[in-house]
Amino acid sequence: MRIGFFDSGIGGMTVLHQALQLLPNDDYIFYADTLHVPYGEKTKEEVRKYIFDAVDFMANQGIKALVIACNTATSIAVDDLRQKYDFPILGIEPAVKPAVQSCEKKRKKVLVFATNLTLREEKFHNLVKSIDHHDIVNSLPLPGLVQFAEDFEFRDEKVVPYLIENLSTFDLKQYGTVVLGCTHFPYFEKIIRGIFPKEVDIISGSVGTAKNLKRILEARNQMNDGTGDILFYKSGYRVEDKETLSNYKKLLEMLDRINLKIGV
């Protein structure tokens, strides 16, 4: 049986990439709900429907575990999904806890990049409230990065002005860690790193999610029963055209060159 990965778009491939490093002999289904991306700009009710439709589809394909490789979808639906399905379901959340722990020691602040919907969710606010005892966590929605990624637009001349404009009111020297709270954002790790002082850490929760997936499958004795094959779907339709599959391969190769620190 395959491992399912779900995201609103191609952002979840940043988490799939981490899983491939740890579980190279498993088989995968990657489902991108591209008809409805971006989720971060839609209502909670709309997004919940899209998520459950997608997971119903993947469950019918036969999966042994599911990774919700989307911060927004995790915050909205992961608890309810776990009540409905009997296979393990893993989510991803902004790596705020390790960021706070690190920055408290350095007497620096934390800056969380995420989508508007993630930052509005009670789950995010409860997470910050539980660990940010010295009021060092700031947040910034960056929906434009999601669209850039979905458009395969990774050129500095397009992305850098967008980031500089959105960061214009922040004193970047105050921050010790930037948390990439959307799975689309690691594609821009090098560009973000170039804007911030060199001593600033940039972290994501994707590494921790992949490690947790491996641990769960080991405990269930469900590892390494495949060949590393990946089936790609867009909103329920199998991706078979060579151009799109080639672009997906290029994205995974791009991620080989990214140097994210471990988050959660």
TrEMBL record:
One MF annotation (Gene Ontology) recorded for this entry: glutamate racemase activity
Keywords, alphabetical: Cell shape, Cell wall biogenesis/degradation, Isomerase, Peptidoglycan synthesis
A Pfam cross-reference name: Asp_Glu_race
EC number: 5.1.1.3
Superkingdom, taxonomy of origin: Bacteria
GO biological process: one example: regulation of cell shape
Alphabetized InterPro entries for the sequence: Asp/Glu/hydantoin_racemase, Asp/Glu_race, Asp/Glu_racemase_AS_1, Glu_race
Pathway: Cell wall biogenesis; peptidoglycan biosynthesis
Binding positions (substrate): D7, S8, Y39, G40, N71, T72, T183, H184
Reactions it catalyzes: L-glutamate = D-glutamate
Catalytic residues, chain numbering: C70, C182
Function: Provides the (R)-glutamate required for cell wall biosynthesis.
Family designation: Belongs to the aspartate/glutamate racemases family.
Protein name as annotated: Glutamate racemase
Species, as recorded: Heyndrickxia sporothermodurans
Classification of source organism: Bacteria, Bacillati, Bacillota, Bacilli, Bacillales
Underlying gene: murI
